[in-house]
Amino acid sequence: MTIHVRAPGRVNLIGEHTDYTGGLVLPMTIDRWTEIRCSPADTVSLRSDDDPNPTVLDLHIEDLAAVQPQWAKYVAGVVAEMRPSRGIAGTVSTNIPIGAGLSSSAALEVAVALALGFSGDAVGLAELCRRAEISASGVPCGIMDQLTVAAGVAGHALLIDCGDLTIEPVKIPDELEIVVQFIVHRTLVGSAYADRVAECADAEKLIGPLRSASPYDVMSIPDAIIRARALHVVEENERTRDFAAALRSGDLRAAGELVVASHASLRDLYQISTPVMDAAVERMIRQPGVFGARMTGGGFGGCIVALTEPGAITDGWVVHAVDGAARVE
């Protein structure tokens, strides 16, 4: 029996660094995939097209730190969470660029879980794979990446409430093109990502859940840095609501203004952009036919995403929303 699984990458249109506080995000799956072709086996034995070193894992793996090569740690995280009764042997291939902020690790995790026989719903799949990511990388990520990969809807972005894990598909207007430009490689392992998670937790100790806080609440936080982090999250949740409404009404200029404001907040309040990323956004929003642009992903590098008129930008990837991960018959 041959098993074939495809899991898409994702780009986040707006709602950045809000998922781990139970906030709102609005990502979409993209037409770039990680694929696994395999057969049932007694162990998990996978070879990547991009790495000559295979990984062979016992079904009852305990020590993720010892797993090599690096990409195999995410496979091992899924195996450790699932404890499957049977393994797989085969190959992994992907055209999702590594270190671009397009959820290459989440796509791999979801693909592995489906290849190993996961049969629950999209939320259960995403929760399992989020735990696997945290175990594999040590990064205290939210659930956005895994849930988007698992639950994508063709032609739509997903308005996800990361508190109650509800999903509302929002149609991408036909007159809107989504363009992604890769700027510089980044990694969240060892970055300040975990610091931002901790800073938000500190804010919530003072004013309660940020998902339900107001800017007025945030102003009571005495520490300037913690206050800035919290203000970004609170205002980003509101921008995400407004962005979804702008897409539904076809107000693309308003949508563009919101993503530009999101980038400014990530740069100034959350401080996860870089001069290189800022310059790339500035160049993009000066181009004719561009409604707005911002950095996307965890920060400190990666990609920018732009909302444009069709055909306005030729330097980048025009991406389309596709369905979520699935076994291919």
Structural overview:
The chain has 329 residues and is an alpha+beta fold. The chain has two domains: 3-171 and 322-327, 2-Layer Sandwich (Ribosomal Protein S5, domain 2); 177-319, Alpha-Beta Plaits, CATH 3.30.70.890. It is built from nine helices and twelve strands. Strands 1, 2, 3, 4, 5, 6, 7 and 12 form an eight-stranded mixed β-sheet that branches. A four-stranded antiparallel β-sheet has the order 9-10-8-11. A hairpin with a 4-residue loop joins β6 (156-161) and β7. It is globular, with a radius of gyration of 19 Å. The mean pLDDT is 94.
SSE-based structural type: alpha+beta
Report the major sheet: 8 strands, mixed
What is CATH's topology name of the largest domain? Ribosomal Protein S5, domain 2
Supply the number of structural domains. 2
What's the end-to-end separation, in Å?
11 Å
CATH 2nd-level architecture of the largest domain = 2-Layer Sandwich
Structure, briefly:
The chain has 329 residues and is α+β, with helices and mostly antiparallel strands. Helices cover 36% and strands 27% of the residues.
Q: Strands, helices and their partners?
A:
Layout: E1 3-14, E2 24-41, E3 44-48, E4 51-57, H1 72-82, E5 87-94, H2 104-115, H3 122-137, H4 144-151, E6 156-161, E7 166-171, E8 177-184, H5 193-207, H6 215-218, H7 224-249, H8 252-268, H9 275-285, E9 290-296, E10 302-308, E11 317-319, E12 326-327
Parallel strand pairs: 3-5
Antiparallel strand pairs: 1-2, 1-12, 2-5, 2-6, 3-4, 6-7, 8-10, 8-11, 9-10
Helix pairs in contact: 1-2, 1-3, 2-3, 2-4, 3-4, 5-7, 7-8
